[in-house]
Amino acid sequence: MAEEQADNDDPGVREYRMSELAREAGITERTLRFYRERGLIPPPRREGRIAWYDGHHLARLRTISALLERGHTLSGIADLTSAFESGRDAGEALGLVEPTEETPVRLTPEALADHFAGQVTPENLAAALDLGYLAVSGEEIVHISRRLLDVSASLVREGVPLAAVLAAGREVREHAEALAALFTDLLATHAAPEDTHRLRPLAKAVVDAELSLALDRRLSEEH
């Protein structure tokens, strides 16, 4: 049965012996053993004395190689791996009961590193997981909102540290929750329940206009 699995072409089901996996990943068996001992990849499936690895192991090894090429250390990758594995499952983090206008984005770890070059540290990753911006889905990462991802990446490119962006995001979250509570209470008092989603854009328009005016006032005070 194991031999049949080893011949399966489905990358999520196909299994490899150690030598096969090392060859597919472009590394030596000695390096593979080292990664396994360091906990950088999960343990293989054992069948007697034979260790079987699958497509998830191969994806993890390719991710490690990509992160090393981008300047990450093995110690840093180990920390990132721990942070990923302690993160919430994507279904839990993105399982919103109500409809949302935000579009989740699926990313590989190396794609996330490219968005925030040099700043995807274990601390920043843990903060993003805690905020619910990121969740883990198998070998991929899910960002809860493409708009938030794009804006965050743009701020980092403009020189704002990712840690500062995340700290600001936490404060914005608190204010946004308060504003959402204000408008849901307002609509619950003065509108029919079935009209809540229809009137939602009006609430967003008020917040957007007020924020725009507040920014104008702040910027005029500084000049």
What percentage of residues falls in helices of 4 or more residues? 55-70%
Number of strands: 6
Mean pLDDT: 81
Molecular shape? elongated
Radius of gyration: 23 Å
Uncertain residue segments: 1-12, 88-99
The structural class is mainly alpha
Oligomer: single chain
Write the H/E string, N to C: HEHHEEHHHEHHEEHHH
Number of helices: 11
Most strands sheet: 3 strands, antiparallel
End-to-end CA span: 74 Å
What fraction strand? 5-15%
Kindly report the spatial arrangement of strands forming the biggest sheet: 1-3-2
Characterization of the model:
The chain is built from eleven helices and six strands. The chain is elongated, with a radius of gyration of 23 Å. It has helices at 2-7, 18-25, 29-37, 55-69, 74-86, 90-94, 109-115, 122-131, 146-157, 162-190, 196-222, and strands at residues 15-16, 45-47, 50-54, 105-107, 134-137, 140-143. The strands form two sheets. Strands 1-3-2 form a three-stranded antiparallel beta sheet. With 223 residues, the chain is mostly helical. Helix 8 (122-131) packs parallel to helix 10. A hairpin with a 2-residue loop joins strand 2 (45-47) and strand 3 (50-54).
